[in-house]
Automatic annotation (TrEMBL), chains A, B:
<keyword id="KW-1003">Cell membrane</keyword>
<keyword id="KW-0809">Transit peptide</keyword>
<keyword id="KW-0999">Mitochondrion inner membrane</keyword>
<keyword id="KW-0472">Membrane</keyword>
<keyword id="KW-0053">Apoptosis</keyword>
<comment type="similarity">
    <text>Belongs to the THEM4/THEM5 thioesterase family.</text>
</comment>
<dbReference type="GO" id="GO:0006631">
    <property type="term" value="P:fatty acid metabolic process"/>
</dbReference>
<dbReference type="Pfam" id="PF03061">
    <property type="entry name" value="4HBT"/>
</dbReference>
<keyword id="KW-0276">Fatty acid metabolism</keyword>
<dbReference type="InterPro" id="IPR029069">
    <property type="entry name" value="HotDog_dom_sf"/>
</dbReference>
<feature type="domain" description="Thioesterase">
    <location>
        <begin position="156"/>
        <end position="228"/>
    </location>
</feature>
<dbReference type="GO" id="GO:0005758">
    <property type="term" value="C:mitochondrial intermembrane space"/>
</dbReference>
<protein>
    <recommendedName>
        <fullName>Acyl-coenzyme A thioesterase THEM4</fullName>
        <ecNumber>3.1.2.2</ecNumber>
    </recommendedName>
</protein>
<dbReference type="GO" id="GO:0032587">
    <property type="term" value="C:ruffle membrane"/>
</dbReference>
<keyword id="KW-0443">Lipid metabolism</keyword>
<dbReference type="InterPro" id="IPR006683">
    <property type="entry name" value="Thioestr_dom"/>
</dbReference>
<dbReference type="GO" id="GO:0016787">
    <property type="term" value="F:hydrolase activity"/>
</dbReference>
Length: 249, 249
């Protein structure tokens, strides 16, 4: 429902730049010392695992779409120069904690074992394999998802809730880029065609309009070659202060 | 998206009665011999694990609601008599394959490693813990869900896609009881209040109307004590022949 403003990177992996966004991966290392939040911007957060990078479970269609967008991404060259590109790849981690600049909310925010729903399985290719790209000039966000065998609903096909999860991931990220921290207020999905397990799908979202704290987003999900429409959807997000989320729970 | 017509049971675990619905759990045993489908209704499907029964991860609120509905369920007594009750508990497995009465579709239906999205994690309490009950007199379906730590979206709270998954599970089951095999055609969710990780929620669905192949369902999700509204939603399902699903993929 809420999304971080993710740091935008090209091909190279960079540490998060925003002082109010921090990301870590404690799948291998012990949890960082949250009692010392002054260290959040450096040191032990320098090398989280970025799940949006290719792994051996990615099939040909997933790789093809990844390369299609990644080849148009800005990146830092080996010589240290920045290459321009219309797209940015959005790195993805198995958890984000936001606005943790002090200890006042930490005790409520931290569930040491919590993991992002879409990144909670370590078995590569078993659930959601995905990467998101953003084009600031066109204000477009795309997500490339490969549906693993643990996402089954109808026999041999992806569960409707897993499809909704893919959509929420793309449009929630887009709304957050547009407006900062948001909560989903409405999600309306038309399911047009089932998705076989193992298939790769392409999601494309657009921000339709902003009205005060509201942002309206639409999203279309097609087969990887664009020939089949799987879903079309609309969503409304509302800007929030994260303190609202923490105090209101 | 599609749901089986689940066999309805009380407290006691029974083998599925319908000849066109079969369910198995191959998490411990080797896969059954699908090349011999004539054996589907007996033998190796007699003792699947029913995930809707309590386990040690269920908290007090989950247990309270389970007992509240289960105490009103019809059941077979030790003496072999049937006790009447308005509610039925719906057993839940980690996969269903349906209508597999012949070999013609099996090769397309069977993904040996596939698991139901909501039952794909063996770590009790980590993702979705839930049980569904159905009241045929009132035509009501309820779901009691406990949200595990691997369902995180906003820090410390349940992902919007996981919430949609809970809703789809309850209303999809209800629509299937009402109309047989269905596909979700539309799902429209209003998110009213975030759900903290670990909380138990109660979902209640009603069939509003049926029109030909269409069935309209509504669903309300509240805190376990009913005092807080988390979501309200509407959905449209369309009856299908399963062969459509298999041939259309």
């Amino acid at each position: 429902m809420t999304r971080s403003i993710l740091p935008l990177t090209g091909r190279s992996l960079r540490a998060p730049k925003s002082s109010c966004v921090f990301i870590y991966d404690d799948s291998k290392a012990p949890p960082p010392p949250f009692s010392a939040p002054q260290g959040l911007a450096s040191g032990f957060f320098s090398k989280p695992r970025d799940f949006s990078l290719p792994n051996s479970s990615w099939g040909p269609e997933m790789m093809r779409l990844y390369e299609q967008y990644n080849s148009q991404c800005g990146e830092e060259t080996e010589g240290g120069e920045n290459r321009e590109g219309p797209w940015k790849r959005l790195p993805s981690y198995n958890r984000f904690l936001k606005y943790a600049t002090g200890g006042v909310y930490l005790s409520r925010m931290i569930h040491k074992k919590a993991r992002l729903f879409t990144r909670n399985n370590r078995d590569q290719g078993a659930t959601f394999e995905y990467v998101l790209f953003f084009n600031s000039e066109e204000d477009k966000c795309v997500g490339v998802f490969q549906a693993g065998h643990l996402l089954e609903g109808p026999p041999g096909h992806v569960h409707g809730g897993a499809i909704a999860t893919m959509i929420d991931t793309v449009i929630g990220t887009h709304a957050t880029i547009a407006c900062g921290p948001v909560l989903t207020a409405n999600l309306n999905i038309n399911y047009r065609r089932p998705i076989p397990l193992g298939n790769t799908v392409l999601l494309e979202s657009s921000v339709d309009k902003k009205e005060g704290k509201k942002v309206f987003v639409t999203c279309k999900m097609t087969s990887s070659d664009g020939s089949k429409l799987h879903t079309d959807s609309t969503a409304l997000f509302v800007s929030i202060k994260v303190s609202q989320l923490l105090l209101g729970s």
